[in-house]
């Protein structure tokens, strides 16, 4: 089985084929696309859920429809710059893992239902865009992903779309929870492209055979927490390739029995 594709936001001096971008760094992102447009194969436009990390916001600034519209604009701009690349724009979603239940409106209208509403709006208003459909769940509850999958099935999205992403694991440290969630998603979506947002490195050897792609932007942590005498941009390049080597090492590790996660 093919190894999953690794998406990331690389140093500006490194040509990398699988790029993760977002509106927060739109100017830098578009400059990067212009610089390496002939080498880039695939682009994911992230929804920017990091704004919910500290509980300051309960919705996207300007509302979800504006956030969706901005995603569509960035998609079209990326498409103009890189016409040969496959581009996926993530529908703005509502995570529960940053601050559990902070984005719920009620027990009936949780982050899952709010995300589904955004998906329906995006597909209706911008049908010509290749949307990456985020699948949400409740914090640290793998089976809760079934609640969203049921809505996707009921609304006909599971049948009509191909690109989906598990979006409830960005800060989950437990490889067992990550694996359990991914296995449920893959069982329900056996023939779909399955992306995972932000899985921890310790989970990669377990989930690699269940997914088509994942993303990580953790490589700058090496820059923040280490000191050396290297100058930029050499320093960023070195630590990026060091991180990428570690990622591929995990993807190439001998398969372990999943039972070790229970130990």
Polypeptide structure, described:
With 263 residues, the protein is α/β, with parallel strands linked by helices. The chain has one domain: TIM Barrel. The protein is built from nine helices and eight strands. Helix 6 links the parallel strand 6 and strand 7. Helix 1 (26-35) packs parallel to helix 2.
Write the layout of secondary structure elements.
Blueprint lengths: L4 E3 L10 E4 L4 H10 L6 E4 L18 H18 L4 E5 L20 H15 L5 E5 L9 H10 L2 H4 L2 E4 L8 H14 L4 E5 L6 H4 L5 E3 L5 H5 L8 H19 L11
Parallel strand pairs: 1-8, 2-3, 3-4, 4-5, 5-6, 6-7, 7-8
Key phrases:
single chain, about 260 residues, alpha/beta, TIM Barrel, eight-stranded parallel beta sheet, 9 helices, globular
Q: What is the domain tally?
A: 1
H/I helix tally: 9
Summarize the helix and strand pattern as letters: EEHEHEHEHHEHEHEHH
User: Could you name the CATH topology?
Assistant: TIM Barrel
C-alpha termini separation: 27 Å
Strand content: 5-15%
Quickly give the CATH architecture.
Alpha-Beta Barrel
Average pLDDT rating: 94
Number of strands: 8
> Which CATH first-tier class would you pick?
Alpha Beta
The helical percent reads 25-40%
> How large is the radius of gyration?
18 Å
Summarize the structure.
The protein has helices at 26-35, 64-81, 111-125, 145-154, 157-160, 175-188, 204-207, 221-225, 234-252, and strands at residues 5-7, 18-21, 42-45, 86-90, 131-135, 163-166, 193-197, 213-215.
């Amino acid at each position: 089985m093919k190894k999953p594709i690794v998406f990331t936001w690389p140093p500006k001096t490194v040509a990398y084929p699988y790029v993760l971008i977002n509106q927060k760094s739109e100017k830098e992102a578009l400059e990067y696309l212009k610089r390496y447009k002939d080498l880039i194969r695939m682009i994911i436009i992230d929804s920017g859920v990091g704004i919910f990390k500290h509980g300051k916001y309960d919705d996207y600034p300007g509302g979800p429809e504006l956030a969706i519209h901005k995603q569509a604009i960035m998609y079209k701009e990326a498409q103009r710059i890189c016409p040969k690349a496959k581009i996926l724009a993530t529908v703005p979603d509502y995570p529960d893992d940053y601050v559990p239940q902070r984005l719920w409106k009620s027990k009936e209208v949780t982050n899952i239902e709010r995300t589904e509403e955004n998906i329906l709006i995006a597909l209706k208003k911008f049908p010509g865009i290749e949307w990456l459909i985020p699948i949400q769940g409740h914090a640290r509850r793998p089976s809760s992903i079934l609640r969203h999958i049921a809505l996707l099935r009921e609304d006909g999205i599971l049948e009509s779309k191909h690109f989906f992403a598990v979006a409830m694991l960005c800060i989950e440290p437990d490889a067992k929870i990550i694996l359990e969630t991914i296995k449920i998603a893959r069982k329900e979506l056996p023939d779909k492209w399955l992306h995972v947002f932000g899985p921890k490195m310790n989970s990669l050897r377990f989930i690699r055979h269940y997914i088509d792609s994942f993303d990580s932007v953790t490589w700058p942590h090496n820059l923040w927490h280490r000191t050396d005498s290297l100058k930029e941009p050499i320093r960023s390049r070195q630590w990026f390739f060091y991180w990428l080597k570690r990622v591929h090492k995990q993807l190439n590790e001998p398969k372990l029995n999943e039972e070790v996660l229970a130990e």
